[in-house]
Design goal:
This protein is α/β, with parallel strands linked by helices. Helices cover 32% and strands 26% of the residues. The chain has helices at 3-23, 25-28, 35-43, 75-85, 102-110, 121-133, 170-174; strands at residues 64-67, 70-72, 92-96, 113-118, 139-143, 156-161, 176-186, 192-199, 205-213. The strands form two sheets. The chain has a seven-stranded mixed beta sheet. Strands 1-2 form a two-stranded antiparallel sheet. A hairpin with a 2-residue loop joins strand 1 and strand 2 (70-72). Helix 1 (3-23) crosses helix 4 and helix 3 crosses helix 5. The chain is globular, with a radius of gyration of 16 Å. The termini are far apart.
Length: 222
């Protein structure tokens, strides 16, 4: 596939995301996503973050398998979660669930520093290689139990979780800075909701539901 092809299908993907954003506005409260989020989605070559045999499908608005019963999320969901997170240029962000690094790259385009945790060692190494080849130098990697977060670098301005715990892990709430925000899918397999957690200046966390979703379960060391 040529670079011209990838540029063309990327623009088609962005058009679909924009249409879905408008269609789901009643539930999400957003008729469109921030231009800087859409610009990051345009800059990051999604085809570099899927298995080679799936490159022709990289810009289809669908989740794709990446091995180990895991997937790279549907582009619309990536854009929605990123927009809800509202990453700022000075933010320090914790990502739980590196996968092959696509969401990590989107965050790295928008924030000062990304700390990403992956439970599956093979995926973590592959993500490091892919992100390194793409030139991202503001990402730190850890292999481990994402439910425990990364306390050595806490607190975080923002936290994003790309696999679903049944309940939001307490350590992640504790590691969220006052005034910070977390975007996380949570619930049992048939009843997951995408949640936004906001911690106020007193340290109290408030949660609101956005839309029903279906993510693979968050793997933990338990």
């Amino acid at each position: 596939m040529s670079e011209e092809y990838y540029l063309e299908v990327c623009e088609e993907m962005l058009g679909i995301i924009a249409a879905y954003a408008e269609m789901s506005a009643e539930k999400t409260g957003r008729t469109n996503f921030a231009e800087r989020v859409m610009a990051a989605m345009r800059r990051v070559p999604r085809h570099e973050f899927v298995p080679a045999e799936l490159r022709p499908m990289a810009y289809v608005d669908s989740p794709l398998p990446i091995g180990f019963d895991k997937t790279i999320s549907q582009p619309f969901i990536v854009a929605l979660m990123t927009d809800l997170l509202d990453p700022q240029p000075t933010d320090k962000i914790l990502e739980i669930g590196t996968g092959l690094g696509y969401q990590s790259a989107i965050l790295a385009e928008l924030a000062a520093k990304v700390f990403t945790v992956e439970f599956i060692e093979e995926l973590a190494h592959e993500a490091r290689n892919r992100l390194g080849r793409s030139g991202y130098g503001n990402i730190e990697f850890r292999i481990g139990d994402g439910a425990l977060g990364w306390p050595q670098h806490a607190p975080f301005d923002k936290i994003i979780v790309t696999a679903a715990p049944e309940l939001i892990p307490g350590p992640l709430i504790a590691q969220l800075k006052r005034g910070g925000r977390m975007v996380v899918p949570a619930g049992i397999a048939e009843a997951q909701q995408l949640l936004v957690v906001e911690k106020d200046d007193s340290g109290r966390a408030r949660t609101r539901e956005i839309i029903p979703v279906r993510f693979s379960a968050l793997m933990t060391g338990e």
